[in-house]
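=== RUN LOG ===
request id: a7f3
mode: sequence -> structure
chains: 1
length: 229
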Amino acid sequence: MQPYLFPYIGYFCLINSSDTFIFYDDVNYIPRGWINRNRVLSNGQIQTFVMPVKNGSQNKLIKEVRLDSLQYNKNKFIKKIHSAYGRSKRFDYVIDYIERTFDIEDDLVGTLSQRSVEIALNLLGIQKNIIKSSENFKETSGVKGASRIIEIAHLIGSKNYINPIGGACLYDKKIFKDAGIDLNFLEPQIVAYPQPSCIRFIPNLSIIDLLMNIDLCDIKKMINLYRLV
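=== RESULT ===
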């Protein structure tokens, strides 16, 4: 899966369902995708946050895209989080999580997004084998689509590949089966949780919203709520 910035709970369900999770960082960057943006709540309204990038283009690989004015935009983002969630009793440790996410040695968007996931996993006590496609499967970089996924699966000795439910329209189970791999699609079971100032529950927000509103033990339970189809 491409590295997403502070992703929603379904992303963590996907990681939790796996033995090995691969950050797919040597595929094309998706402008206006989830690689450098996500959504939180502010005064009961959805607010999209974006970490701007320099010359973000679908002709560049994710690992090549750099963040623009990182320190300035980090401070701007943290001010938004203060405004949106400053009254949360969990604010201090969540803002510490966010601050640590931005403690990176380079200005690559892939590094920031991957770090946002890995630190959240540590908070939740989830330990998985996590690797990057750009570092571990360079020899497959010229292969495209399902063929590359199958080749990577063979390289790590995997007989099962799990993809988000949205991939059901992209990948054919028969093609994977013929290659000796079972393909499953993960559908998270989204559970409503308290969101102060909201009249009705708004699902699929950034993990930041969950961390601000409910305890870690409850989030751990939610991450186990999914079905494979």
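=== NOTES ===
The mean pLDDT is 96.
The first strand starts at residue 20 and ends at 23.
=== END ===
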